What we know:
Layout: E1 13-17, H1 29-34, E2 38-42, H2 44-48, H3 51-67, E3 74-79, H4 83-91, E4 98-102
Amino acid sequence: MPGEPQDDRPRGRVIVIGNASREPAHLQPGELMKRNLTVTGLWLTSLMSDQEATREAAQELTRLVGSGRVTPQVGPTYALADSARAFQDLMDRKTTGKVIIEPQN
């Protein structure tokens, strides 16, 4: 999240999940307040240690995906023989979404 949230709707919520890029978020509190935006963070590692919270979150996510309100972002697909390239592309941050490795073409 390099800058301010781009959504124009007031009273919205920005959820920051993870930080794979290790880039700092540059949010301006004054701009967030003017638009009545809420910023919250989520770190899956600590969430996963709570089995009940993990179960509840998985159920809710399953419901949201099933209803079409949430659509998983699917990234590139690689053949099993190209697994090393897939891993390198991940490490080089050339991919977005879930990377798929197909065991058979």
